[in-house]
Please model this.
Amino acid sequence: MADETNPTPIDVEALFAIDGLLTDDEREIRDTVKRFGAQRIRPHIADWFEIGEIPVHELALELGRLGVLGMHLEGYGCAGMSATSYGLVCQELEAVDSGIRSLVSVQGSLAMFAIHHWGGEEQKQQWLPEMAAGRAIGCFGLTEPDFGSNPGGMRTRATRDGSDWVLNGTKMWITNGSAADVAVIWARTDEGVRGFVVPTTTPGFKANTVTHKLSLRASVTSELVLQDVHLPAEAMLPEARGLSGPLSCLNEARFGIVFGAIGAARDCLECAVDYARTREVFDKPLAGYQLTQAKLADMAVEVGKGQLLALHLGRLKDRGELTGEQVSVGKLNNTREAIAIARQCRTILGANGITLEYPVIRHANNLESVLTYEGTSEVHQLVIGQALTGSKAFR
Model:
């Protein structure tokens, strides 16, 4: 029984009474995915990170059976669950590793969302059920070697060949690329930026795996090379015109990151608390020192605030009220705080914090990527700044 001298420890979610803000269904899907992560992924993730390989096709099938691929989309084999439930799934997956959340996020919020939202009925029927089941893996080709934050400068072009199209160009930093069965490729045309559904077996399409990464090692990252890739007219996404198409997909992915980054931060904090309670320094537990408790308290406050922000944005999205600048607020705050928390937790673990025996340095390395992909912190600052001032400062 707890007493005033040594009260029973609680976790950060209990500190903020998070469970009371969730529905029964939301708690159930969160806990289901948390168990899946603990039983299926955690025992292997350090090894996958170390060797830089992941059984992506095997995991995709398991995630498909779990019902989380495109889970926030309606029909075509998708679960049709709420945005908040999807966010909680991202949180639990990224609490294990950012690479696992990236696999699910790119599949569902980028590739599947693009086809679901902007595609024709035949495209949806062909690809979405297979992707929801994990039998087909998708990737999303927007970023180019010289154009990340400025996608409008893309050089990939699609030109007419009678009624067909020919694509030429290069895409870079593409998650799932080398494992994908289908790629959603954005290209410049005489009619503006358009999207194309490209089976990766199409002649002229090549995916080169990016190696020597020190971040997101448990994730497939690729360069896509398109050289005279001939596509029929019906490969174009009929409803997407201009940059609004790909940017709408990015907002979907950023929403998942708002939740996911806090999952990684929470995992670091839980690890640091457990370590501090058992590690003895000068004949007493590290947790018993005021400096350590100050660090833990400050981090707990930021994790709790980040969770509350994510849940608030989830509720807004479920009501159809979420704006792009609000997503930017969530992405900016939660990724920035998550990486600071990971680094601070590393100091509590000392030298043990740099080994893969503990998850902290792995999360810290992954969050270096999460901080800058789907919009750098600077880009999100400018999005928020424009909303506040009415003045665009991108150029």
Notes: The CA atoms of residues 43 and 257 lie 23 Å apart. The first strand starts at residue 138 and ends at 141.
